[in-house]
Amino acid sequence: MKDYITVIGRRTSWNRGCISNCKSRNKVKLYEMKPEKFSPAHSSKELAEIVCSNSFKSNSVTNACGLLKEELRNLGSLLIQIADETKVPAGQALAVDRETFSKRVTEEIEKNPNIEIIREEVENIEAEDGIVIIATGPLTSEKMTKQIISITGKDRLAFYDAAAPIIEKDSINFNIAFYGDRYGKEGDSSYINLPMNKEEYEIFYNELVNAEIVTLHEFEKKEIFEGCMPIEVMAKRGEDTIRFGPLKPVGFTDPRTNSRPYAIVQLRQDNTSGTLYNMVGFQTNLKFGEQKRVFSLIPGLENAEFVKYGVMHRNTFINSPELLDNTYNLKAKSNIYFAGQITGVEGYVESIASGLVAGLNAVAKFNNTEKITFPNETVIGALSSYISTENTKFQPMNANFGILPPLEEKIKDKIQRYTKMAERALKSLKI
Predict the structure, then answer these.
(1) Collapsing DSSP states into helix, strand and coil, what is residue 67?
(2) Which of 31, 98, 149, 274 is the most buried (most CB within 10 A)?
(3) In 305-351, which ranges are E strands?
(4) Is CATH 3.30.70.100 the classification given to domain 5-157+318-430?
(5) Helices of type H across 97-154
(6) Are strands 336-338 and 131-135 parallel, antiparallel or unpaired?
(7) CATH value of 166-312 in 2.30.29, 1.10.1760, 2.40.30, 3.40.50
(8) Alpha helices per DSSP H over 75-211
(9) 242 alpha carbon, distance to own chain's centre
(10) Is 118 exposed, middle or buried (0-12, 13-18, 19+ CB in 10 A)?
C-alpha cells in the first residue's frame, strides 16, 4: 500500500478530510484540477471556492445547522474556525467573506508540509491502490463521473436533484389531515392526506402559478425538467391539471364532510422513524420563501415546519445507502471513501461534516486502528446514518432535527424541544 492518502476534490469537504489527515502526520496527495480545468460554475484557482451563497446558515443551536457547526467546533474543525475568522455581519447566521475564506483555506493547505497539491485531473482512480477520498462535489467532471461509475459498479449517477419539500410530522394539523390509502386499500397507511374544498384549492392554485421561481444557471436549463416536471409548471397548463394529477381526490373521503374532497395533497413517510413526510408530486423550482408561503396555504400545513425545501438543480450524487457505510467508506472497495455533496449531504457545513468523518476514518484505516463513528443523537452522526440507511427513494438531505432520534419526553414547544436535542447532542460528544 502507498505511504500516503490520496484526496480528490475541490470543495470544503475534502479540505476538512485532508486537514484531519495532516494533524495525524499522514502524508497526503491532494488532486485539484483547477486552474488546468474549471467546472461551469468555478472561476478561482483558490481551494474551497464558494460559488453560491456566502452563508453557512444559522449559528443558533436551536437550528440543526447551527448545532452541527457547534459540534464541529467542539471537534476542532479548522474550516469552521476559518469561517468564524472571516465572518461578515449576517444577524444570527454565519456568513463569510467568500474570497478571504477561500484564500485562508488555501494558505493553510499550502503551508502544511504533509500535503502535496497536484493541479491536474485524476486519470484513473482504480490505479490508486492506496487509500483514496473522493470529494468532487455536485459539478463533478465528465471524466471523473465515468470513473466513479466504474468503481461503484453502477451504470449511472443521479445528475439532478429534483426533490419535493419535506415536513416535520409534528407540525401537521391532524384536525384536518388524516391517514389512509386511496380506495381504503389495506396496508400500513403510510400516507397522510390533506383534503381541500373548491375555494381552498382555488386560493392555493392562484398563488402557486404566480409565485416566484429560482433562476437556473445556463448549464442547468437544457436538462433540468426532463422526466420530472415542477408542480408550478404543471399547474400553469390549466387549473385542473394538477387536480387530475398529483392532487386527484379519487378514492378518498374527507372525514369532516363524509364526501369526496375537491382536491387532495398526499404526504408520504420519508424516514424509518416516521418523523418526516414528503409532499408527493411537489418537486418544485419555487424560491424557498415562496414555498413556505404558498404551501402553507394547504389546509393542515398552515403551521408546517419545512426541514427541506423542494429543489431542482444540478447535483451529481451517488446512491449512498446502497454504496456507503456510516463512515462514508465504499462497501465494495474498502480503500475508497467519499465526502461532500456527492454523498447526498446538502450544504457547506454538511459537506464539512462528511469530510471530517471520511478523513478521520481514512486515517484510522491507514493506521489499522478502529473506525470512528458518531452517535445518532448528534447531527454529524445522524447525517452519516441517513446516507447509509436503506432508502429506495434516496434524495440529498441537509441538517435538520427530523433526522435525529426523537426525545423520550414529548415537548410541544419547538424551541424548547430543539434546545433539549442540542443539549443531548453536545453531551453525547463528550462521553
Answers:
(1) helix
(2) 31
(3) 306-308, 311-317, 336-338
(4) no
(5) 98-110, 142-152
(6) parallel
(7) 2.40.30
(8) 78-85, 98-110, 142-152, 198-209
(9) 27
(10) middle
Q: How many CB atoms lie within 10 A of CB 334?
A: 11
User: Which segments of 28-75 does DSSP mark as H helices, in order?
Assistant: 64-74
pLDDT tens, position by position, 276-328: 999 988 989 899 999 999 999 999 999 999 988 988 766 778 999 999 999 99
Asked whether the whole model's pTM tops 0.85, one would answer no
3-state secondary structure of 391: coil
Cα separation, 431 vs 424, in Å, equals 11
**DSSP 8-class letter at 47:** S
Tens-place pLDDT, residues 209-241: 999 988 765 544 444 444 467 899 899 999 999
List where CATH 3.50.50.60 sits in the chain: 5-157+318-430
For the chain, residues classed under CATH 2.40.30 are 166-312
H/E run at residue 87 = strand 87-88
